[in-house]
From TrEMBL:
Domain SET: 69-304
An annotated Gene Ontology molecular function: protein-lysine N-methyltransferase activity
PROSITE patterns reported in the protein's UniProt record: SET (PS50280)
Record keywords, A-Z: Methyltransferase, S-adenosyl-L-methionine, Transferase
Protein name per Swiss-Prot or TrEMBL: Rubisco LS methyltransferase, substrate-binding domain-containing protein
InterPro entries per UniProt: Rubisco_LSMT_subst-bd_sf, SET_dom, SET_dom_sf, SETD3_SETD6_MTase
PANTHER family given in the database record: OS01G0976450 PROTEIN (PTHR13271:SF134), UNCHARACTERIZED PUTATIVE METHYLTRANSFERASE (PTHR13271)
GO biological processes: methylation
């Protein structure tokens, strides 16, 4: 799920699902953005070019929805087609602030639409996503006999969906270097788990589920993940509203910018929930235009501040130059508090929903080891154990990336370097403290001690407890620590370049596979950009320190 998007949850720097915010229910406001922004996806031409304003396939959809709702849903939007699939276009001039869409709860599909005879058999572990997937499967089976048929028939087929959960093993290999690879495997396992937990119920209702395979279930599941929103009814499919496409270039923060306004000024319902531990915010029912639109403009919303990996996993597309791309350097293993793992390796992963029960070996692994022969090893481990806070707490795209260092693009190599987590730099500072050992004899025992590490410990205690958060007084050591990090980044960069190089040789791929290869390349290129920006920043940082040092000496 995602953001206010279809399941529109916000991908923010804080884990929304854990903030404890709970908004009175409501009709939420979505700000929409005009499709005159630059092209957004790999699929050219841009969406505002020659849109087909009326989607003939949906001819009976709006009259049906209006009749079912008993009210006008929107008088200013029409359903059309763009390169993004079904899309919403302004059919009349729209002014900022206009309410452009209202979808009553009565025409939303939620888990409570499941027949009580079915839902009563489902265990508590069955998620809302899985339940809503079952609702979709029931209506798919009913076909034209379903009262939701005009909507269900508008949903994309599995062949039209490109989430990496539908990629073949061969296709997935193309993104093996990215953490999305692990995320995808983990997510597939989660879906399989959900399927096994409902299988006995499916068997009890052959009239609805006789032919349902894991494949069909996955399809329905991803329909929910790529289109559902969160409402007070839980995860909901909102017909018509789920035809909005995503605009990653929009500066409008659908979630947070609207947040207070919605909860305070309108009677809207904003609610933050978490599906599969993924943070997302959802809003519902009412969409307010945030800018003016001329007839024919595609009206887009921002699903969330999603990196390409997340867009690809949930929605099956990526954006070129996605400013929300991130890379995660993750401490290895399932147990980040393990001193050994914490020190011994850092793994670079792209950030997305990594689920904790998966332990496949990541392809890119960077050793940041404290050699066993390091006399300070025990002390370093102890210090880190005492002072290091979980580096990724609350900042990850993916629920399971609790162990890593989330690296975002550093906009300027001479800037503040905010894309490189302090905790990662701190780790490098500690790891690089390798000298100044002294032996202390205490109670007839010999202890190895380091004034340098001791200083860090004192400094941490005197400040906020964070270890090595400020530059080391010893400038040469500070440079050494950052050069050490840069080496690791450069190693990963080399691996990304090699992976990209290998993708260019997949010329035999056709159709869907060729498209997926293009997407895989786009994903890796975006992550490489983040890595290169970090490396450039580290280089600049070291050079600046060296110059300062030289100036002081002369
Ligand atoms: C909520 S639905 C939007 C309506 C959808 N286009 C349809 O045909 O029903 C989300 C899906 O739309 C497509 N989509 C939305 N925004 C996109 C974008 N910026 N670039 C490419 N595809 C996009 C993706 O297939 C995504 O899974």
């Amino acid at each position: 799920m995602r953001e206010p998007r279809p399941q529109f949850a916000e991908e923010r720097e804080t884990k929304i699902g854990e903030t404890g915010h709970h908004f009175r229910h409501c009709n939420a406001n979505f700000r929409c953005s005009n499709s005159t922004a630059p092209p957004r996806s790999l699929q050219v031409p841009p969406p505002h070019q020659a849109p087909q304003y009326v989607d003939e396939d949906c001819a009976d959809f709006l009259p049906w929805l209006r009749q079912k709702a008993g009210v006008e849903i929107s008088s200013v939007l029409s359903i059309g087609k763009s390169i993004y699939g079904r899309s919403l276009f302004a059919c009349k001039p729209i002014q900022a602030g206009d309410c452009i869409l209202k979808v009553p709860y009565s025409v939303q599909l939620a888990p409570d639409n499941l027949l009580p005879s079915i839902s009563s058999l489902l265990g508590e572990e069955v998620t809302d996503v899985a339940k809503l997937a079952l609702v979709i499967l029931v209506h798919q089976k009913l076909g034209q006999a379903s009262e939701w048929a005009p909507y269900i028939s508008c949903l994309p087929t599995i062949a039209e969906m490109h989430s990496t959960i539908f990629w073949s093993d061969e296709e997935l290999k193309m993104i093996r270097i990215s953490s999305l690879y692990q995320e995808t495997l983990k997510h597939k396992v989660q879906i399989e788990k959900d399927f096994s937990s409902i299988k006995h119920v499916l068997d009890r209702f052959p009239e609805f589920f006789e032919d349902v395979t894991l494949h069909n279930f996955k399809h329905a599941y991803n329909l929910v993940e790529s289109r559902a929103w969160i409402s007070t009814r839980g995860v909901s499919m909102i017909p018509f509203a789920d035809f909005f496409n995503h605009d990653g270039f929009s500066e409008t923060d659908v979630l947070s910018a609207e947040f207070e306004q919605v909860s305070e000024v309108t009677s809207s319902s904003l609610r933050i929930m978490s599906i599969h531990s993924r943070p997302f915010l959802a809003i519902l029912g009412v969409v307010i235009a945030d800018e003016n639109y001329a007839p024919g403009d595609q009206v887009l919303i921002r699903y969330g501040k999603f990196s390409n990996a997340r867009l690809l996993l949930d929605f099956g597309f990526i954006l070129p130059c996605n400013k929300y791309d991130k890379v995660c350097l993750e401490s290895n293993g399932s147990c980040r508090l393990s001193k050994t793992f914490f020190y011994q390796s850092l793994i670079i992963k792209r950030s997305i929903f990594l689920l904790p029960w998966m332990h496949h070996n990541p392809l890119v692994q960077v050793e940041v080891s404290v050699p066993h022969r390091d006399h300070l090893r025990a002390m370093k481990l102890d210090l880190l154990d005492k002072h290091t806070t979980p580096p990724l707490k609350g900042v990850n795209d993916f629920s399971s990336l609790g162990n890593g260092f989330l690296v975002m693009e550093v906009k300027s190599s001479s800037g503040k370097g905010r894309g490189i987590p302090q905790s990662l730099r701190a780790l490098a500072r500690v790891v690089c403290c390798t000298s100044s050992q002294v032996l202390v004899i205490y109670k007839d025992k010999i202890f190895v001690c380091s004034p340098e590490l001791q200083d860090l410990a004192t400094e941490a205690t005197q400040n906020d407890g964070g270890l090595a958060r400020i530059p080391l007084k010893n400038r040469a050591r500070e440079v050494q620590a950052h050069q050490f990090l840069r080496l690791r980044f450069d190693h990963i960069i080399d691996n990304y370049n090699a992976a990209l190089e290998s993708l260019t040789h997949h010329s035999s791929l056709l159709g869907k596979h060729a498209r997926r290869m293009q997407v895989a390349r786009g994903l890796l290129i975006g992550e490489l950009r983040v890595l290169e920006s970090a490396s450039a920043w580290l280089k600049n940082y070291c050079e600046t320190l060296i110059v300062k040092d030289n100036n002081q000496k002369t």
